[in-house]
Amino acid sequence: MGRNAAHDADDVADESSRAALDEAVRALRRNAPRWARTPADERARMLERAIADTHDVAPAWNEAACRAKGLDPGGADGGEELLAGVGMLVRLMTAYRRSLSDLSRRGRPRYPGRVRHRSANRLSVPVMPSSLLDRVAYAGLRAEVWIEPGVDESQLRAEQAPAYRSAAQHAGVTLVLGAGNVASLAPRDAIHQLMGEGRVVVVKASPINEYLVDYWRRALAVFIEAGVLHITTGDVDVGRHLVQHPDVGAVHITGAASTYDAVVAGTAGKSSGALDKPVTAELGNVSPVIVVPGEWSRREIEYQAAHVATMIVNNAGFNCLTPRVIVTHSRWAQRAEFLDALEGVLATVPTRLAYYPGAFERRARFLAAHGDARHIGRAGPGEMPWTLVRGVDPSDEGHPCFREEAFCALTSETGLDADSPEGFLRRAVGFCNEVLFGTLCATILISPRSARRPDMGATLEWALGELRYGTIGVNVWHALGIMAGTTPWGAYRGHVPTDIQSGVGVVGNTYMLARTQKSVLRGPFIARPTPAWFVTHANSATAMRRLFELQCTESWLAVPRLAWSALRS
Asked: What mean pLDDT do residues 27-47 have?
């Protein structure tokens, strides 16, 4: 009798909360036309308040995220979480505010440089550095967006910011199904929908990080008060209800391909496109790092080992952009030296809590095929050692390391044979395009001496054109593509529901460019000073906190303190 009464009370509570959620979505739908007509300058002013509110809530937000992931908020890993969490949200809002001000004053966002003509009748648009402060904070980093073939410069300008040229056509409600691994992704996706797509938003947090919802609500209160954003929690049934809600006109997912299939088809199988509303998605990837062979100095070996180790360690390996396959030349004389140096750096980094569900089961499946995997570091309770699987046979095209995203602290390496460095790079492009799962992001590491050789320089540009990835980094980790905000972030274009791979559509893209194909980021082979986010940076925590302050304030007064922290590397 007592149990039945309790169940009845739970049912009433569930029905009450479901009714309140339905009313919130209906209110969003009523407000959608008003939001679509809201002028760009008014949206920019709302972003100013959101940036200030996010800055205010940042310490508590970051402490909560660190506590959930077993990190020290005052340590280097806490600085990493600050920049990847709150910091990425602030940077996106800042970039959108700048573009909206341009829209209000000049009629379109103004990109920071001249358009260039690339191979295959493609244009590339410079998008970073986007300010003088960018040149200081991200010295040497450049980013450009490549446009689909056949678009000329007049079309490029005419098609910018479509949500502001035909606002009524873009009005509606988008459901954002938030990711559980990175603290900023759900609010970033909401900002993209509000500013880039002109749509109002209901966010359903992942159960993994729904503890952050209160901080998100405080950070984005200006949009909640305006009736254009609602943030909720709940289990898979709540998500399913919102997906099918008649007042929700579009869905955006960050997660795995299986999640996409379940949302679109209603089952965790190959989707037939059963859901009758637009769905965009940023999904998984077996992210490659292509190491072009050359004669590297000891300093270069150490720097790039720290660079790749940083990519592996970030967020304990629970990223869709974590390197999963390091692609080397099997005949490279320094192959073993580089891999030994990589393991040496990893050995200096404390192991981390494996906080994401299913991590140990996924790791066990990979290790079942590789008893020779290298386990690096002493893992405590609930932690996982850094794991490197060397020498995976590249001819085994169905190998789990090539076809499945490990989504834990595990990375593999494979060696491709070729008669020359140029031949290796060409073979690596084919291997990544045809064998590895996904099309989200990739990195190429190449020394300037190699890149300056005419044959290799031409091969590198060919490779950038041919690689089928949404973001490509040259001597910079491809993750800086999502950090930048100005670059579109998403899969290479062309996936269909029956073979979705890394997804469809983009987020970010604060210059609001149409018909984008890929983003290309380039940086120095050795950056000086060492980037603040490197795991080997001696003053990383302070430097990243000061970089965050610079992003929030955009004040030159913050530059000397950042420079001092960065130089103490």
From this structure: 97
On the question of pLDDT at 316 being above 70, the answer is yes
78 burial (CB, 10 Å; 0-12 / 13-18 / 19+) is: buried
**Cα torsion 538, 542, 544, 546: sign:** negative
Give the number of residues written for the chain: 569
Q: How far apart are CA 130 and CA 110, in angstroms?
A: 10
Strands 173-177 and 386-389: unpaired
- H or E element that contains 105: helix 88-106
Give the pLDDT of residue 2: 45
How far is 479 from 368, CA to CA, in rounded Å? 29
Instruction: Compute and round to an integer the Cα radius of gyration of the chain.
Output: 23
Hey, what amino acid is at 52? A
Asked whether residue 417 carries a pLDDT value surpassing 80, the answer given is yes
At 141 the pLDDT is 95
Task: Characterize the bridge pairing of strands 471-474 and 441-445.
Answer: parallel
Pair 476, 303: CB distance under 8 Å? no
For residue 567, the model assigns a pLDDT of 56
> Within the chain, which residue ranges are assigned CATH 3.40.605.10?
32-109+160-282
Q: In this structure, which topology does domain 32-109+160-282 adopt according to CATH?
A: Aldehyde Dehydrogenase; Chain A, domain 1 (3.40.605)
pTM (two decimals):
0.94
* pLDDT per position as a tens digit, 502-545: 999 999 999 999 999 999 999 999 998 888 889 998 777 888 88
d(CA 238, CA 206): 11
* pLDDT per position as a tens digit, 444-465: 999 999 999 999 999 999 999 9
25 in Cβ contact with 230 (< 8 Å): yes
Domain with CATH 3.40.309.10 in the chain: 287-480
**DSSP symbol at 85:** I
Distance CA 68, CA 517 (A): 36
Cβ atoms of 206 and 186 within 8 Å: the answer is: yes
User: What CATH number does the domain located at 287-480 have?
Assistant: 3.40.309.10
